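Hi everyone,

Forwarding the result from last night's run.
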Amino acid sequence: MRIVRAGHLPPLPRLPDGHTKILEVPVGPLLGIDATARFPEPELRLAPGSVLALYTDRSIEKRDSDIRSDVERLQGSPALLGGGGPDDLADGLLRDVCHASPDRADDIALLLTEYAPPRR
């Protein structure tokens, strides 16, 4: 896959063995800041059965916490570490988010995609 980050937080893949990792890929400028900006577009490989999580900062931020700690907390989320497909994972992550910051006043976005090899 190719991935582009325009100021976004790092993607989190859950690998088939249940481990998660933070994908440290280059970050380009925020969208709309510079019409001539170039965005790094690295190519990455995911193992079949991996689930990739993309999310907004508002979906993980906790009051009085730094964003890196928030990303690491998401990486260790029981929902992300558990089994199940994207539907179960989305439900669990949203429960974790609501539990971590019940007074959230901003919107959140979560996108999950599962890499499944072609069926033969």
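The first helix runs from residue 67 to 75.

Cheers,
N.
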